[in-house]
Amino acid sequence: MAAKLKKGDKVVVLAGKDKGKTGQISRVMPADNKAVVDGLNIAIRHTKQSQTTQGGRLPQAMPIDLSNLALVDGNGKATRVGFRMEGEQKVRFAKTTGEAI
């Protein structure tokens, strides 16, 4: 199945502690059905110091389930994603506005 959300998409969180916040997807894990959004779902990770990195309590963005994310359309609102053929090419489009993504 084609991916409805991809790296670089601007999304809004629908559920969880960051509900209503928007961000950009930095990584998608289709096997786990999760995505990492920059600046959202932050957790503190304790890391040990090594020769290359400073140790301590480092904030890290944790994965969010794809079902809790929605794409942001041109109007700045959450929208579902659909697929359609434009000529020979399959494109994603926003269901609210109908415009291609």
Q: Could you explain how this protein is built, in words?
A:
- The protein has 101 residues and is mostly beta strands.
- The chain is built from no helices and ten strands.
- The two termini are 18 Å apart.
- Strands 6-3-2-1-7-8 form a six-stranded antiparallel β-sheet, with no helix packed on it. The chain has a two-stranded antiparallel sheet with strand order 4-5. Strands 9-10 form a two-stranded antiparallel ribbon.
Short description:
The chain has 101 residues and is an all-beta fold. It is 0% helix and 48% strand.
Topology:
Elements: E1 10-13, E2 22-29, E3 34-37, E4 42-47, E5 56-61, E6 64-65, E7 69-72, E8 78-79, E9 81-86, E10 89-94
Antiparallel strand pairs: 1-2, 1-7, 2-3, 3-6, 4-5, 7-8, 9-10
Q: Tell me roughly what share of residues is in helical segments.
A: under 10%
Number of strands: 10
Give the ordered list of helices and strands. Answer: EEEEEEEEEE
CA-atom Rg in angstroms:
16 Å
Query: How confident overall, as mean pLDDT?
Result: 92
Outline, from the CA principal axes?
A: elongated
Oligomer: single chain
Low-confidence stretches: none
Structural class based on helices, strands and sheet pairing: mainly beta
Labels describing this entry:
101 residues, mainly beta, 6-stranded antiparallel β-sheet, two-stranded antiparallel sheet, 10 strands, 48% strand, elongated
